[in-house]
Amino acid sequence: MIVRKFSIVVSAFFSLAVCAQEMAKTDLELKPEVKLSYLDSIKSTFKKNDLAAKVDSLWMNELVSLDIYDDLTKDIQTINKDVTVDEELPTELLKQRLAAMNQKSPFEIEYNQGLENIIKSFLKNRKKSFSRLMALSEYYFPIFEDAFAKQNVPLEIKYLAVVESALNPKAVSKMGATGLWQFMYGTGKQYALKIDSYIDERSDPLKATAAASEYMTKMFNIFGDWELVLASYNSGPGNVTKAIRRSGGKTKYWDIRNYLPKETQGYVPAFLATMYLFEYHKEHGINPERAVVKNFETDTVAVKNQMSFKQLADLLDMPQSQIQLLNPSYKMGVIPFYQGEQHFIRLPKDKIATFVSNEEQIYAYVKHDAEFRTTSSRLAVKYAPKAKPAAVKPAPVDNGDFEFYKVRKGDNLGAIAAKYDVSISDIKKWNNLKTNAVAIGRSLKIKAEEEAPVKTLPAVVDKEQAIASAENKEKTAVDMDYVVVAGDNLGSIAKKFGTTIAELKELNNLTSNNIGLGKTLIISKAAVVIEEPASTAIASNSVDSFKKKAPSKNVSEDYYVKKGDSLYSISKKYPGVTISDIKKWNGIKDEDIKPGMKLKING
After folding, report:
1. Of 365, 362, 361, which is closest to residue 345 (Cα–Cα)?
2. By its UniProt entry, which PANTHER family does this protein fall under (predicted)?
3. Is residue 70 classed as helix, strand or coil in its secondary structure?
4. Which of 85, 197, 198, 602 makes an SS bond possible with 120, Cβ 3.0 to 4.6 Å?
5. Cβ count within 10 A of residue 240
């Protein structure tokens, strides 16, 4: 009986062992081998850092938004200090608060009706703007205070950057003044700020603030009055000295204000009103919005080779917009490398740790990516579609070979060219147009391109040749033209074509975000050229297996968010999928996602 029980137990263990082996074998069969890209293989060797600096994407967008700058600049330039504003703030209480501010400031802050009107105007119309500005100030004010303390400049001058640029390092005035401190080109060069095709240090918070501090010190040595220093910053020292002469030799701002240019008359009061709102924001119910990233949470590292923001974003799993925010002085989305000069990149501290710990792999990837792009350019020529030979000019044809299109309201050459699948330059040539402007009601001659013959592979195709042929097809760059219409800006155009502002500026050699109506922009897109075999089942299956590497937009797939994921990093996992696609498919209004959340891809 004992022997029988023992044999049953042994048989059970044996059965379990066999079952486990079969399950393991099945499990192995169900997990196909995934071929890693060179980027993924490089990142898999990175030494991971436990720090996780979570960046609020909405706040990041806030930092690069220009709407506050536009609104505040317009207010300061057009505000009428003589118009009484109906806003609840007793005059006697305001006088007491201004007197308290005057006691602890080197500025002469005294009550006058014009200052009261401007303060009340800001309270009535700009409460929300100041709430947002106070969030930005948590990042920039420590930089300003550090630079001013070194030069013994009053720390209150930090509020001048709010008046000048609304704390936006990418702000550009109509006159071309640029950056947080709105330096003109000549003044920037005078204070040794580097300005070239790749770099504009007027947008560098550290270097531009140091230059502003140096300017303030020199002007104070001339005028001996901080209000006059501010007036000279706005209108130039020449206009201040003229006002002093016209006033009969008076040397106080409030005594010469009426002799200054009109804009400068409201400039210093706007500065003092800004200082007041920052000092007494709680009393007026202005609650600063949350600032997630602060300057002390970032650091810099010297770059030893030229690299692009895109390469850094791919390697460090962070949005390009964040790199652009922290490094606004790089105009082309590229950190250049000049012999004998050092250039630095500012990143969140956890990303700096990743960068420094893996520099060798990072530079290896940058080199590989540069070589790959060069190779791809050559392959693009080799594998370009034969339907539109660029070098061959079409022979002259009679009007009978053309069809005519009548220009309607809202049309532009870009839209018409896209409608007929022709280029803008062809339409201009066919109709003898010198510019991109077309009048409503004009009839344009259009000759559509003939379709290229469909190529097929031979009836018998070797399996390995079919796979190799499919896998060796490269992406070819197809340039598209777009004509700027009313209401367009670089942001809306980039969103429309699934690209970035930096890439548009690089393609079109733009040095600022300003674009003129009717300007033709180059829009770059990538298209995969695949020649499918016509007849054999083997070849067809081989090409199908290649296509599965890119997700089909007709097939839905679920993705579960992991810790550390962002919409940007998830979109990179699926070629051809953008952040806006994921947000549309899942009804997401912002970029706030949580671990464990199920996302639908290609729905």
Report:
1. 362
2. LYSM DOMAIN-CONTAINING GPI-ANCHORED PROTEIN 2 (PTHR33734), MEMBRANE-BOUND LYTIC MUREIN TRANSGLYCOSYLASE D (PTHR33734:SF22)
3. helix
4. 85
5. 27
H helix or E strand, kind and range, residue 156: none
| Maximum separation of any 2 CA atoms in the chain, in Å | 126
Encoded amino acid at 340, one letter: G
Do residues 326 and 273 lie in contact, with contact meaning Cβ atoms separated by under 8 Å? Answer: no
Q: Which of 404, 414, 421, 402 is nearest to 438 (CA)?
A: 414
Give the whole-number percent of the chain exceeding pLDDT 90. 19
Bridge partner residues of 307 (DSSP): 335
pLDDT category, 26, cuts 50, 70, 90?
very low
**pLDDT the model gives residue 570:** 82
Q: How far apart are CA 317 and CA 307, in angstroms?
A: 15
Residues composing the chain: 603
Cα(343)–Cα(500) distance, integer angstroms: 23
d(C-alpha 168, C-alpha 176), whole Å = 14
**Rounded CA gap, 441 and 292, in Å?**
54
Global pTM? 0.53
pLDDT (tens digit per residue) in 345-380: 999 888 888 898 888 888 888 888 877 766 555 555
* Cα pseudo-dihedral 138, 144, 150, 153, rounded to 10: -120
The whole-angstrom separation of Cα 485 and Cα 518 is: 6
What per-residue confidence (pLDDT) applies to 457?
Answer: 38
Euclidean distance between CA atoms 410 and 340, whole angstroms: 52
